[in-house]
């Protein structure tokens, strides 16, 4: 079964009302992950814009970003670099604290994960308010490497997360709400 359109992928994303708290409609990707055709299509579509970009590293954000990012890295014949929550990486790290709507959060990356010759794409499952992806982009740029673009399976466009990212960075999302 071919998954050529966003609508076909959207059919594999389930709405879960009031999760994780009342008033939130969570976009659940587990049905997409369970479908070999949908998962394969999502990964191929995330990788497609970067096939001719000489990507050397795919950076992905914990935890659902790892699922897609590692698969995209394989397609692009690039390395995989995890960005994680504090205390989860075993080597020395660089930390980045960033502001969310109601508080702050912290991400970490190994301090030897990238170098200034790298050409990087960042992959995550969701672009919502943009804070986490903007923090990841700042971390990547801190290594002096080239951030070629950002990809996400889902974009909650009504939250305007793109506005938090550098306008010169290409953003590729598969399904918009």
Q: Explain this structure to me?
A:
It is built from 5 helices and 9 strands. It has a single domain (52-176), classed as Rossmann fold. It starts with 5 loop residues before the first helix and ends with a strand. The protein has helices at 6-10, 30-34, 36-47, 64-76, 131-141, and strands at 14-17, 25-28, 57-61, 79-83, 93-100, 103-110, 119-127, 146-155, 171-176. Strand 7 (119-127), helix 5 (131-141) and strand 8 form a beta-alpha-beta unit. 26% of the residues lie in helices and 33% in strands. Helix 3 (36-47) crosses helix 4 (64-76). The longest helix is centred in the middle third of the chain and has 13 residues, at 64-76. It has 177 residues and is of the alpha/beta class. A 5-stranded parallel beta sheet has the order 4-3-7-8-9, sandwiched between helices.
Order of helices and strands: HEEHHEHEEEEHEE
Rg is 16 Å
Strand order of the largest sheet: 4-3-7-8-9
Calculate the mean pLDDT score and round it. Answer: 96
Strand content: 25-35%
Distance between the termini: 24 Å
Main beta sheet strand tally, sense and closure:
5 strands, parallel
Looking at how many chains there are and whether they match, the oligomeric state comes to: single chain
Helix content: 25-40%
Low-confidence stretches: none
